[in-house]
């Protein structure tokens, strides 16, 4: 999307058509918001990003958790677990390329956000603590790391909108992925260090792009997953929420209620994503009266 997404957005807006994408790239998503939000509003059309696994399960999961809590939800952490069958699992290298280019361009993302000038969202209740780069998760009895996709970016933008336009209580959010035991941590650390070193330099990025299977230990390939791999893969996203019971002032004291919810689905990248995208399109067509004007 970084290189090929904008012409589609521009053409849709200019010709009065709404646009849905499955991008998981925060820089593209927020860049399109900056450039086309006002034009889209003038045309009466919608540019709706991240309508795939990134980031409908996360965004809808937070809202679902909020609706199920009897009280005021103030903080949520999500933990992604992907299970594969005997054939294993892999991801097409297009996602790998997005990660390479995205990490190499972090400074421009920060500049973009300054240019947008997001109004700060107030922290309601106890501040949600940030986890480390690698930590042991007592709930799952395995190690977890921050999720590197667009979930946090998308959820924050949704919460900002709901607070600004509908005066709803904003929910703090953190996204993580479970990676397994200590052996997985050691492998990931070596791969991560090598990735971060190479991504800083042009020749390093070329190597990463040319040999995704080697540098990702087979997790990313140019062919993508087989049908058997997709059939045997599924995901579970678990949400741990905290907040304040009905009648309790979130500005006073620590959270006194907790909630746990789950979003489950089939293989995330190539089965769950098209399901989510098509349902987003159906909602756009059938529920237009419920959308922001």
From TrEMBL:
Spans traversing the lipid bilayer: 173-199
GO CC annotations on file: lipid droplet; mitochondrion; plasma membrane
Superkingdom in the source lineage: Eukaryota
Keywords tagged on the record: Membrane, Transmembrane, Transmembrane helix
Keyword Transmembrane helix included in the entry's annotation: yes
Keyword Transmembrane helix: yes
GO-annotated biological processes: glycolipid biosynthetic process
Coiled-coil ranges per UniProt: none
Name under which the protein is recorded: SCPDL oxidoreductase
Organism (species): Alca torda (Razorbill)
């Amino acid at each position: 999307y970084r290189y090929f997404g904008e012409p589609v957005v521009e053409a849709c807006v200019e010709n009065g058509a709404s646009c849905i994408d499955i991008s998981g790239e925060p820089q593209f998503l927020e860049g399109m918001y900056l450039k086309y939000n006002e034009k889209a509003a003038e045309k009466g059309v919608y540019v709706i990003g991240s309508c795939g696994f990134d980031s409908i399960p996360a965004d809808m999961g937070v809202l679902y958790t909020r609706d199920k809590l009897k009280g005021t939800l103030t903080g949520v952490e999500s933990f992604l677990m992907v299970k594969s069958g005997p054939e294993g699992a892999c991801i097409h290298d297009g996602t790998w390329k997005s990660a390479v280019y995205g990490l190499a361009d972090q400074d421009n993302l920060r500049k973009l956000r300054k240019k947008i000038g997001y109004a700060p969202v107030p922290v309601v209740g106890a501040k949600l603590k940030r986890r480390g780069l690698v930590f042991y998760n007592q709930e799952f009895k395995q190690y977890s790391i921050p999720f590197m996709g667009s979930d946090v970016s998308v959820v924050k933008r949704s919460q900002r909108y709901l607070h600004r336009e509908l005066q709803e209580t904003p929910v703090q959010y953190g996204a993580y992925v479970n990676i397994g035991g200590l052996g997985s941590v050691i492998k990931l650390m070596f791969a991560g260090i090598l990735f971060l070193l190479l991504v800083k330099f042009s020749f390093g990025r070329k190597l990463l792009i040319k040999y995704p299977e080697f540098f990702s230990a087979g997790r990313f390939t140019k062919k993508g997953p087989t049908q058997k791999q997709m059939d045997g893969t599924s995901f579970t996203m678990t949400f741990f929420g905290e907040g304040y019971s009905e009648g309790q002032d979130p500005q006073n004291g620590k959270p006194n209620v907790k909630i746990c919810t789950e979003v489950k689905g089939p293989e995330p990248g190539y089965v769950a994503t098209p399901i989510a995208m098509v349902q987003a399109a159906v909602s756009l067509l059938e529920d237009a009266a419920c959308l922001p004007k």
